[in-house]
């Protein structure tokens, strides 16, 4: 058989949910190699007495989920179901080690305690939101996760084959080269975005996959496609997949191996067992499922407090009597049946490395840099704002001051003030783009794809050169049209560019701190206004009140205005001498100004990195 025929055979096996990937791969050495490189080590997941409560303003506590226990085996597709407020998403977050709030209980992997550094290497969490760059292509998204989470995959051909397999398994082959899209960018559909998020999770070669409501908001057909793909992956690659799902139709429900059914007020377990035995269990508890009724709909009616068919307390009591004893015995036995550690599973792959991240910093940086370059070049706004808008603004300012080189020295100072001011204002337009990128960066960093430092460095290597070119073109355009003497260009240009780097660092910090673009601009505007007022020309240093005197030694606008005005004043005669006397400007502080501005750049960039690491974490 040809190589293409073998590939088709493997893809077919994925869709048919065969018992193992090896059965499909046994046809050829090529398939054997793919199976060896892409096999997932199976893991069991055991939880004991997991519970969660929240404090109330009156000092009391509200129980969201009562302590519960359970055990899952590798290769199972598990449905977590229950009415709103039953704690199913809370349970999933605790199992996935995503719950940042304090909770009780313990979770074991292969009978061993989890390590917060290595657990993300074998577990992937797919949340309710599909947070991805709009100008990213579907194939690129899958390859990105594969490159950052699979150190052991060798060779470009195998990597491409794995990507093709996942595209086919999740029904994304037809849109492989389409943009992900967003609110303002046309791209793939909502159902395809959900499947892409799931495919990215599988691409990470995780043994555990946690999915929080992957079918919410999707059509029945899209929901069925998602669960079909998850079942294929669970059975073919031996992945344990836990899915929070709302009232699936019967065809979807039958794909799950195990059902965990919770009731609410507070969250309590009412069933834990095989999905195909749930109907018989309900009947044994005195609540047979009526004919022509979707069993899962009926299950939820029975365990939803306050509805007509409410039997939640009855089923909690039945669970404690019939299922909980044997479940507790299974949990106890799992505690003593220890399997391989996460480190042992990782080291079983040739070339693998231990620690939180699968690849070293430089590989993280290269992947992020490639993505940053690609999405920037495809985004007209990312090019227009830093490049075209400053050039247009510089031309307008230059036209307003045409012939300023032959006018009075006082008019020339006004021109320098406007040039410096407009240069500072321009960087504020880029903060919304930074904040959008921060959103998906925080989600990806929480999945241990890369460090925030690698993301900041990659953005710096693209955004700063773009911004520098825009600022440089703006100053050159303004200077050329205004008619100033060319001998002043080196002084004006160099100080303007140094000022640009200070404000670019400042706006980067504000974008890292603020919750949204409006807040970032609100934070930046007072700082910008204060620096501009205290530039030594509007509010002079000799005449400034004592409570603002401290601003001048750290004001980049002051140093830039001082250096440029002093240089122009040397050729302005008595007018220049008068301005120097009035403002208190001096050329003896230029070196100090350069040191202060460079120190500000370093400090602001450092604080930006600290803010990105410390703030706006994905809280659950």
Topology, element by element:
Blueprint: H1 3-15, H2 21-25, H3 29-38, E1 45-55, E2 61-72, E3 77-81, H4 88-95, E4 104-109, E5 112-113, H5 119-122, E6 123-126, H6 138-149, H7 156-169, H8 190-203, E7 208-212, H9 220-237, E8 240-244, H10 250-253, E9 258-263, E10 268-274, H11 278-284, H12 295-303, H13 312-336, H14 342-347, H15 361-378, H16 380-400, H17 409-426, H18 431-446, H19 452-482, H20 489-513, H21 517-533, H22 556-569, H23 573-583, H24 590-614
Parallel strand pairs: 3-8, 3-9, 6-7, 7-8
Antiparallel strand pairs: 1-2, 1-4, 4-5, 9-10
Helix pairs in contact: 6-7, 6-8, 6-15, 7-8, 8-9, 15-19, 16-17, 16-19, 17-20, 17-22, 18-20, 19-20, 20-21, 20-22, 20-24, 22-23, 22-24
In a nutshell, what does this entry contain?
With 620 residues, this protein is α/β, with parallel strands linked by helices. It is built from 24 helices and ten strands. The protein starts with a helix and ends in a 6-residue tail after the last helix.
Task: Report on this structure.
With 620 residues, the chain is α/β, with parallel strands linked by helices. The chain has 24 helices and ten strands. The protein has helices at residues 3-15, 21-25, 29-38, 88-95, 119-122, 138-149, 156-169, 190-203, 220-237, 250-253, 278-284, 295-303, 312-336, 342-347, 361-378, 380-400, 409-426, 431-446, 452-482, 489-513, 517-533, 556-569, 573-583, 590-614; strands spanning 45-55, 61-72, 77-81, 104-109, 112-113, 123-126, 208-212, 240-244, 258-263, 268-274. The protein has a six-stranded mixed beta sheet, with helices on both faces. The chain has a four-stranded antiparallel beta sheet with strand order 2-1-4-5, with helices on both faces. Strand 9 and strand 10 (268-274) form a beta hairpin. Helix 6 (138-149) crosses helix 7, helix 16 packs parallel to helix 19 (452-482) and helix 20 packs antiparallel against helix 21. The longest helix is centred in the C-terminal third of the chain and has 31 residues, at 452-482. It is elongated, with a radius of gyration of 31 Å.
